[in-house]
Description:
Mean pLDDT: 79
Low-confidence stretches: 1-27
Number of strands: 0
Shape: globular
Distance between the termini: 53 Å
Amino acid sequence: MVHENMPAMDSTSEMNTHGGDERARPVRITKRRAISGSSWAFFGFGGEQAIRFVRSLFLTRLLAPDFYGLIGLSGIVVGLIARFSDIGLNISIIRDKRGDDQRFLDTAWTLSVLRGVIIWLVACAIAWPASRIYEEPLLLYVIPIIGLSAVIRGLTSTKIATRNRKLILGRLTVLRILAQALGLSTTVAWAMYDPENIGVLVVGTLVSSLFIMVTSFVSLSGRGNRLCWDKEAAHELIRFGKWIVVSTAITFFLAQGDQAIVGVIQTTEAFAVYSVAYFLARAIPKVLLNMGPKVLLPVYAQMDEKNLKQVRRRTFKMRAALLGVFLPIMWAMVLFGRYLVWWLYPESYHNAGWMFELLTAGNVGLVIGLTAGGVVLARGDSFRFMILQTARAITMLTGMGVGYMIGKNTGAPDGGIMGFIIGMGASYWLNYPLLVWAIRKHGTWLPGLDGVAFAGSAVVVYIRFWVMQ
């Protein structure tokens, strides 16, 4: 490793490479390692988001809005397919006691390879219906090509997951940033050379996926993966993952379902404007979604659930720190986000300003929930997590539908999309009781902390939309 905080873990102690069924002793997540992992996760996500931000600035200037919108539409379709086949292999490696057993890892990798091929085949099958639904003929070709990235990712070594398990994130972070930078440079170069060529829509995704797959084998220490089928390991992976399939598909809908629906009810040009607002508003939630499997899940998994007082104390410290950092940033976005959009993007995207502020106001409820919900999966309660995500999706879908109809009936030019956004944001706030139901069983509900977070956010929303208008 170039820089890892625990260099001894790079040798034979990092991974049980020859032990067969031998169970490696689980690594204890110390406070130092948790802080180091959090720091690397912040740095990595910040770097990746900065690259995506630069990509957005370049492409909104180099491409026509309808062509830029196609990039988002194709990614949504393939992402949805991927989530329906996700059985939580990385989560299983992180939380399972056999997470360092090579036969367990090879079995997980074999399932990952199969999953990648299935995703690509389904992408090919769904390309034509998607092109008709969105009325974009190019999707017929773009979706199968982007779907190949799922095959590439399926081949990626489980050495990435084992490092996540132990919060050894230094080199992983560097590799991910390099992959994003490589994808950005190839996409921008192609867009400058031929901005109307289909290659602009696919080249960056394929190049970055290929880079991560190759470097996961050649740049990380430990034995590579090979095809293997351990019946006990496969049973455990599938048993845990059977509810994850539904949960992750619903999680994807919670994260990007609004984009999928907006792509249908709006033109591709209007969708491109919404996608800019979506990208900016989801920055903070994506930090927490990114930290979940890398930092929060391993930390929660190491907590001694028998010592409830310790669990609550550590949970409070972790959540208070996260909310103390992120909520003030989101409040500033709610109050002044439109000016940021007007300054950064061409005039054709300026409508994204008020969308950005409304989306961020709703996402406050989402962020509060994301800091708390990780304990459910860390305890292996995938069924309860599935119920939680399903109820959230129903609430969100109801909110979007009711808000859209009310807004459309006002007759205002943007009434439908405005009501849509308000309804979705309201659902994030209103589903808090569902979160309480899910986490109370594990003793990590902190009503005082959450009450302060919601109250402060409500004041900011009131100031922006009733006082400032």
